[in-house]
Amino acid sequence: METRIGSLVGVPSLLLALLISITSASLSLSTTSWIVKSLPGFDGPLPFHLETGYIGVDEERDAQLFYYFIKSERSPDEDPLLVWISGGPGCSVFSAVAYEIGPLHFDVKEYKGELPTLVRHPYSWTKVSNILFIDSPIGTGFSFAKDHRILICEGPRGLLWWGF
Q1: Distance from the CA of 96 to the CA of which of 75, 133, 134, 142 falls in 20 to 30 A?
Q2: Hey, what's the signal peptide range on this chain (predicted)?
C-alpha cells in the first residue's frame, strides 16, 4: 500500500519526517497534542479540524516546537499538505493563522474593552489544503527550550536551535 503525505498519517509522523530532513540532530520522539473544538470570540464550535501541540526536538535540553495543524475543509485525504514555517525570531506562525491564510480572522471593529470577535476567512488556504504551521526556531511563538542557551539557529540544526 502506498502512503501519500495527503493521506495524513498523523501530525507527529509528519513533523518527525520534516525535522529529520531538516537536521542531522538526534530527535526526541515525545509529542503532546490537543484537538481544539472552540475558541473564545468565535460563536459556536469550530467548523474545521484544528490540532495544536508540541514535538520534542532535543530531549537533553527539553526543546519543543509548537504547531497548529488545520485539515483541509474540502478533502483532507486528497488535498495537499502545506508546511508553513514563519521566519522568526519573534514572528510566530500565529500571524499567518489569524491574519493571513488561516480559516479565521479578527472582526476589526472599534475596541470597546471586549473580547475580539473571530469570523470565517472566506479565502483561507485551508479551503483547499491541509496546513501544518510550525513556530520555529526555538524561542519563537510558543516553541521553547528549558535550557535558555538554545534560542535561534546555527549550522546544520538551522531551524531548531542555537547553542551559545
Answers
A1: 75
A2: 1-25
What grid cell was written down for 30?
515525545
Q: What is the pLDDT of residues 16-33, one digit of tens each?
A: 455 444 433 334 346 789
pLDDT digits (tens, 9 = 90+) for 78-126: 999 999 987 666 689 999 999 999 999 999 888 888 889 999 999 999 9
30 and 55 Cβ atoms separated by less than 8 Å = yes
Residue with cell 499567518: 96
Distance (Å, whole) CA 79 – CA 65: 25
* CA atoms within 13 A of residue 11's CA, in its CB half-sphere: 27
- Asked whether 133 and 126 are in contact (CB, 8 A), the reply is no
| Straight-line distance from the first to the last Cα atom of the chain, in angstroms, rounded to the nearest whole number | 45
Residue 107, judged by CB atoms within 10 A of its CB (0-12, 13-18, 19+), counts as exposed
pTM for this prediction:
0.75
CA distance 44 to 60: 41
